[in-house]
Design goal:
single chain; 0% strand
Length: 389
């Protein structure tokens, strides 16, 4: 049989989790990372990143709306997911995620965006006509009060929601790592570090994504990029990246030291099946190169245009690296047999239900949603609004 060495059980010849399940942790990670970046300005008083505060919130919302889609497409019966809410199964980590997702979307993110935008929504309603006026009228929820006192209350509530949102974002994505880390039968996944590694890699990808979207939006609007903002985002990206890389290295060192019966099989797989995706794409191109670029900028001064190019390159490569990491965890964890003697390969279709085409559509969808959100709720701060604490 092609692509199979040694002995492999018949039910392991076909991978159960496809490229859609690779996208699932990747998309939820972008949500968590974007929200953490937004909280830097709101909670931790990092004033320099204020130009990206609202952009980060809208980015988180756009990706969060699409986050369950890969799962739904993989399961094949999306209508059955409602049973999760109607008959909750508290002992199932998968089922409880539905409640975490709903809490984060409905209570934390939508409310925070609404309180932050309420003044702007009222003003846009007053300026608009026709269908847009009706749309903004619905968004005001019947509250047109934008007095200084009301805006102060909005700001306080928004601040509290951001504080609640930080552990919620950690829970949202840490859970994805928890799902993999708790599968004891698979040595590639079964490590207590998995949720923490997933979480920090999520923050890296989210911060990098918002940084790239910010630079692209400035270019499209023909507006100067705020270099202080960009330098600050890149600095935080560098710090989180170092922690993420350190955790992944720690996990690798621990596996090498432990060297149990599965280690030889995993080692062989990394040197053959996953060499390109793990060693070349994830570690060299997606981690070491962007880390080096970000580190050089910290110690040596460059012209604005050069720095901007280095940040965009580092951010793009970081996202490629995180996507490769998700691929190596999800796909790589299914390529070896439970006997540790045989290996299989993953063949991705194109226009099949779980092929490349649906995956590309899933990845394009959040950007389409984000474009609509940016038109309806411009985050550029052209008008002054209530100061954050």
């Amino acid at each position: 049989m092609p692509g199979v060495d040694g002995f492999i059980y018949p039910n392991e010849l076909e991978l159960q989790w496809s490229v859609l399940i690779v996208l699932y942790p990747f998309v939820t990670g972008l949500v968590a990372g974007a929200f953490i970046l937004a909280s830097l300005e709101r909670v931790f008083n990092v004033a320099a990143v204020k130009p990206t505060y609202r952009l980060a919130l809208l980015t988180a919302l756009a990706f969060l709306l699409v986050a369950p889609l890969p799962l739904q497409m993989h399961l094949g019966h999306p209508e059955r997911s409602f049973a999760m809410f109607l008959t909750p199964h508290r002992e199932s980590a998968m089922a409880m995620f539905g409640f975490v997702y709903l809490w984060y979307l409905m209570v934390v993110l939508l409310l925070e965006i609404w309180f932050d935008y309420r003044r702007d929504i009222v003003l846009m309603k007053q300026r608009s006509t026709g269908l847009l006026r009706w749309f903004y009228s619905v968004l005001t929820l019947g509250s047109d009060n934008i007095s200084p006192g009301a805006l102060r209350v909005d700001d306080r509530i928004g601040y509290v929601l951001t504080i609640i949102g930080i552990p919620s974002a950690f829970l949202l994505h840490g859970y994805v790592g928890f799902i993999f880390g708790s599968i004891k039968a698979n040595p590639w996944w079964s490590t207590p570090l998995m949720p923490i590694v997933f979480l920090f890699s999520a923050i890296v990808s989210g911060i990098a994504a918002v940084m790239l979207i910010y630079v692209a939006s400035c270019k499209l609007r023909r507006v100067e990029v705020d270099m202080l903002c960009l330098d600050t985002i890149a600095r935080y990206l560098f710090y989180v990246f170092v922690v993420d890389f350190s955790l992944e290295s720690l996990d690798l060192i621990h596996r090498m030291y432990e060297s149990d019966e599965s280690f030889r099989a995993l080692d062989f797989m990394v040197k053959t099946r996953l060499f390109t995706s793990q060693i070349v794409v994830q570690i060299i191109i997606g981690t070491l190169v962007p880390l080096a670029l970000l580190a050089i900028v910290q110690v040596k001064h460059f012209a604005d245009a050069t720095r901007r190019w280095m940040y965009v390159t580092a951010g793009s490569l970081a996202i490629v690296g995180i996507l490769a990491m998700r691929w190596n965890v999800v796909i790589g964890g299914q390529l070896f047999s439970k006997s540790f003697l045989g290996y299989t390969t993953y063949k991705m279709g194109f226009a099949t239900r779980e092929g490349l085409l649906p995956a590309l559509i899933v990845m394009a969808l959040p950007f389409a949603i984000l474009i609509v959100l940016l038109r309806l709720l411009p985050p550029w701060g052209d008008e002054p609004h209530a100061a954050h604490h």
